[in-house]
Design goal:
Oligomer: single chain
Keywords: Hydrolase, Magnesium, Metal-binding, NAD
GO cellular component, one term: peroxisome
CATH class of the domain at 251-387 and 408-427: Alpha Beta
CATH architecture of the domain at 251-387 and 408-427: Alpha-Beta Complex
GO molecular function, one term: NADH pyrophosphatase activity
CATH superfamily of the domain at 251-387 and 408-427: Nucleoside Triphosphate Pyrophosphohydrolase
Distance between the termini: 10 Å
Radius of gyration: 24 Å
Shape: globular
EC number: 3.6.1.22
Strand content: 15-25%
Organism: Juglans regia
CATH topology of the domain at 251-387 and 408-427: Nucleoside Triphosphate Pyrophosphohydrolase
Length: 447
Amino acid sequence: MIVMLSLLSSSTSSSLLSLSRKLCLQTFTRTFSRSSSSTTMAINLQSHAFAGNSLRSKTPKPEDPRSPITALETLKTQLLDANPHHQLSSPSFKVLPFLKGRPLAASGAGPGDSSPNWHLGWISLADCKGYLANSGVELSGDSMVYLGSWPEEDVVYWAIDVSGEGGLVPEFGSKQLCFVELRTLMVATDWANARAMGELAVAGHARALLEWHSVSRFCGHCGEKTVPMEAGRRKQCSNELCKTRIYPRVDPVVIMLVIDRENDRALLSRQSRFVPRMWSCLAGFIEPGESLEEAVRRETWEETGIEVGEVIYHSSQPWPVGPSSIPCQLMVGFHAYAKSLEINVDKEELEDAQWHSREDVKKALTFAEYKKAQETAAVRVEQMCKGVEKGQNLAADFNVESGELTPMFIPGPFAIAHHLISSWVYQDAINGLQAHSKEPSGSLSNL
């Protein structure tokens, strides 16, 4: 970030310095004003959705009983013990089952929650072993993936893929637990609730690891089967002559808000898979041998014919809700400044791309009722966990304000695109907030 800032022109760098400091901390404060008769909603995020997973913030040292290898040996010992009452050794274990990429979840208002909210459906190791035994499956340590532990707890958390065990669905359903799409949980998460945001990050990390295990069953060098190592944190080829080490893959994607030279308009695009009236930022995968900045310029040019000059880093976000063939995308966000204005849309990539004024984008932020969509999704999760299936288009609830549909809306606060756009729209307000905060100016070295 310091290097990139030093490359800016003097006229630009001073105005962006305070904004960059704010964004480096990943603390986003936005106020969206609705009509005069309605309330004001503030969105405060300490980190992006799926980031800030405190379970994996520090890996315990090998001698710690909660470390991956030591905990796995304890887990295997407990699995061999036929008497669940003997499983009282330290640490204890909790397991999060996944079914076809969907984590087990429950619904209900927690402490301080005024409306329905979801939480992960952790079960004990003994219960997990019992559920699988009822389906004729013997649980093994190799089927478990280590997620981590919290320093203040003597508990180790694991994930397991039970996609082949359809009989578990009614068994969990009888306890008002259900497997829910991670995207649904993402929308249902109250971004002001630190606990809920933390659980979403854990679920995203677990899904990414399990999906990676699913797509890396064979060695890419010799074709032999791979086996999990280090409690599922990596894999290794089973061929004694090969033994290639395989680590979880991360798929970097650049996502950029392209801004005109006057800083008055932003380039937003639509894909055919988008719900009606939704517009978002351009994005694309990074190619081998390409820098992040080069990828921003190439993707923008290929998809819209716009030439980009200056590229400014904004923030990044893990994105584990893509297709299972791409286990874990990392969205790397930028503000990019256009050198040309004429749009030439690649119709194979995009449905449309247009310049939008700051005022029009601000209106899209103003009228998109993200909180209403969150509450609607939370109710849906509650219904699913109670066994009530009810078809509902959650996206429609993003755009309704007093019965009036808005011309456009952008992705909600769970997406980095939202923050790329809103930080540009409210750039003046953020700079004003920074000026009042009386933070020391000049160096970013202490961030």
